[in-house]
């Protein structure tokens, strides 16, 4: 598989340049081009599109602790905004995104964005994680996902992680960010869930038949630990992930718009010092969760300053 290689741009995580790219994704020029290329009505998908833009910037920030040398795989690329940015800055990146799991519009968005920026067609494969094969796709030094693990088919979670592990280099690292549904709250819809019976919430809220809702597996931190143990990997969870999410309300307009209830209570929590207390809560009682997986035998964990071990981590 040939992927264009250019020197990594050291400004790949320059905040101003990242925001400039995000603003271009929201520009009339690009949006009008997308409208001319898709079969969906823009009003049907615009909310999801801007959510993808928000997640792309968030993903850039999550990855900013890495030097991004080596070969990298994004699991669940959506319309590929983050893959596009990384590739345009010289990162050896590939993504996978299935087009037939209720998110078919992602493929149309991706194709429009790819043509607009004149990107090579083989950067994102129409593939589910369960179909990854080292004989076909080779190995990767870093495999990451942003708000994707909660969409894996419930019965295939361990299989998906096994397949991801199979294409991970021996000294490679998985790096994932997703909700921890042990806390009864869904960040996609921005509403609380019925404790112990989250599926009931969909019926109560009238979203039970929406593809997004039906895709949720309601993954929890204990489940991730169980899967990691079963496939022979060590998992480490970031502390302060929930605190960081509240702070994100100040920095991310689209994220704040999706969480109006949190926006209303955030100033009170901040004034009372509760936001700082969130940073002391064990990860198992926090949502979202950010975590790394390494092969057993590698000594490493995730602390508040970043990853302690990764051959591709910034010094």
List the helices and strands and how they pair.
Blueprint: H1 15-25, H2 28-35, H3 42-63, E1 71-75, H4 81-88, E2 92-96, H5 105-117, E3 124-125, H6 134-137, E4 140-146, H7 157-166, E5 168-178, E6 185-186, E7 191-192, H8 198-205, H9 211-214, H10 221-230, E8 233-237, H11 241-251, H12 253-258, H13 260-271, H14 274-278, E9 289-295, E10 302-303, E11 306-307
Helix pairs in contact: 1-3
Features:
single chain; 315 residues; alpha/beta; Rossmann fold; seven-stranded mixed sheet; two-stranded antiparallel ribbon; 14 helices; globular; disordered N terminus
**CATH topology call:** Rossmann fold
Whole-angstrom Rg: 19 Å
- Helix proportion: 40-55%
Can you count the beta strands? Answer: 11
CATH A-level architecture = 3-Layer(aba) Sandwich
Superfamily (CATH H level) name: Vaccinia Virus protein VP39
Overall number of structural domains? 1
Could you tell me the mean pLDDT? 88
Shape: globular
CATH class category: Alpha Beta
Amount of beta strand: 15-25%
List the helices and strands in order.
Answer: HHHEHEHEHEHEEEHHHEHHHHEEE
- Give the oligomeric state of the chains in this entry, treating copies of one chain as homo and distinct chains as hetero: single chain
Count of DSSP H/I helices: 14
Largest sheet: 7 strands, mixed
GO molecular function, one term: methyltransferase activity
Keywords: Methyltransferase, Transferase
Pfam families: Methyltransf_23
GO biological process, one term: methylation
């Amino acid at each position: 598989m040939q992927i264009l290689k250019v020197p990594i741009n050291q400004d790949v995580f320059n905040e101003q340049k990242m925001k400039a790219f995000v603003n271009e994704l929201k520009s009339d020029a690009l949006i009008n081009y997308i409208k001319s290329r898709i079969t969906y009505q823009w009003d049907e998908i615009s909310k999801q599109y801007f959510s993808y833009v928000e997640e792309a910037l968030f993903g850039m920030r999550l990855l900013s602790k890495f030097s991004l040398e080596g070969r990298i795989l994004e699991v669940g690329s959506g319309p590929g905004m983050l893959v596009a940015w990384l590739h345009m800055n010289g990162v050896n990146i590939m993504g996978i995104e299935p087009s037939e799991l209720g998110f078919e519009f992602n493929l149309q968005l991706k194709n429009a964005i790819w043509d607009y920026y004149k990107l090579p067609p083989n950067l994102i494969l129409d593939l589910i994680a369960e179909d990854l094969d080292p004989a076909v796709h080779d190995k990767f030094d870093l495999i990451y996902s942003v708000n994707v693990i909660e969409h894996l088919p419930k019965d295939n979670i361990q299989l998906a992680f096994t397949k991801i592990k199979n294409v991970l280099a021996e000294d490679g690292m998985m790096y994932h960010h997703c909700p921890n549904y042990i806390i009864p709250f869904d960040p996609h819809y921005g509403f609380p869930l019925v404790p112990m019976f989250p599926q009931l919430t969909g019926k109560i809220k009238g979203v039970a038949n929406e593809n997004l809702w039906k895709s949720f597996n309601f993954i929890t931190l204990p489940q991730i630990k169980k899967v990691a143990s079963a496939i022979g990997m060590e998992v480490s969870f970031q502390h302060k992930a929930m605190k960081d999410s509240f702070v994100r309300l100040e920095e991310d307009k689209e994220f704040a718009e999706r969480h109006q209830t949190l926006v209303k209570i955030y100033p009170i929590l901040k004034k009372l010092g509760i936001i700082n207390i969130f940073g002391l809560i064990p990860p198992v009682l926090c949502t979202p969760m950010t975590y790394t997986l390494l092969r057993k035998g590698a000594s490493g964990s995730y602390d508040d300053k970043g990853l302690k071990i990764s051959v591709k981590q910034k010094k």
